[in-house]
Amino acid sequence: MAVSIELIKQLRDMTLASVADCKKALDDAQGDLAKASVLLKKRGLEIAAKKASRAANQGRIEAYVHTGNKIGVVLEVNCETDFVARNEEFVRFTKDVAMQIAASAPLCVNIEEVPAQALAEFNEAQRQDYAKTHCLLDQPFIRDPKQTIRDYLTSIVARLGENIVVRRFCRFKIGEE
């Protein structure tokens, strides 16, 4: 089945995947846009899993000061090469994540950073709620609440082809300890 350029463009706009990946996903899904989107997400997760063990020793420190100068964020995001650290998509990702931190005030990067005794009395549903509220990677992305920061990170890893890690952050707010 021949896939139209318009359909490829529509899938690319939805997922930001490469044209070749969009065409392959649409071919595999026999032109079904929803199925192709799911296939691309699955492939992105597979790519991210393969890259997770690779060392990420380069990266970028992003600083963000919110309008009014009452909230500020310093964020470290690591990648494998300085080439990717200067990439426009990587830079946009770091800016978006810094803005996310300013807006949503997470306490940690992921649930693994939370002490086990703090989560001991929570059941699984309560842990998931806690993670969505307090853990950066599990929070809904403020620019697209249908995806989490982890989903956004996975899509960037798949597109750039390198392991990318949100290492740490510090959020400052006037009057807070």
Describe this structure in words.
- It is a single chain.
- A three-stranded antiparallel beta sheet has the order 1-2-5. The protein has a two-stranded antiparallel ribbon with strand order 3-4.
- It folds into two domains: 5-51, Ubiquitin-associated (UBA) domain (Helicase, Ruva Protein, domain 3); 58-173, Tetrahydropterin Synthase, Chain A (2-Layer Sandwich).
- A hairpin with a 2-residue loop joins strand 3 (140-141) and strand 4 (144-148).
- The chain is of the alpha+beta class.
- The longest helix has 19 residues, at 33-51.
- Helix 1 (5-15) packs across helix 2, helix 1 crosses helix 3 and helix 5 runs antiparallel to helix 8.
- It has helices spanning 5-15, 19-28, 33-51, 82-85, 88-104, 116-119, 124-134, 149-160; strands at residues 58-65, 71-79, 140-141, 144-148, 165-173.
Structural domains: how many: 2
Cα-atom radius of gyration: 18 Å
Molecular shape:
globular
> Strand content of the residues, in percent?
15-25%
Task: List the keywords.
177 residues; alpha+beta; Helicase, Ruva Protein, domain 3; Tetrahydropterin Synthase, Chain A; 3-stranded antiparallel sheet; two-stranded antiparallel ribbon; 50% helix
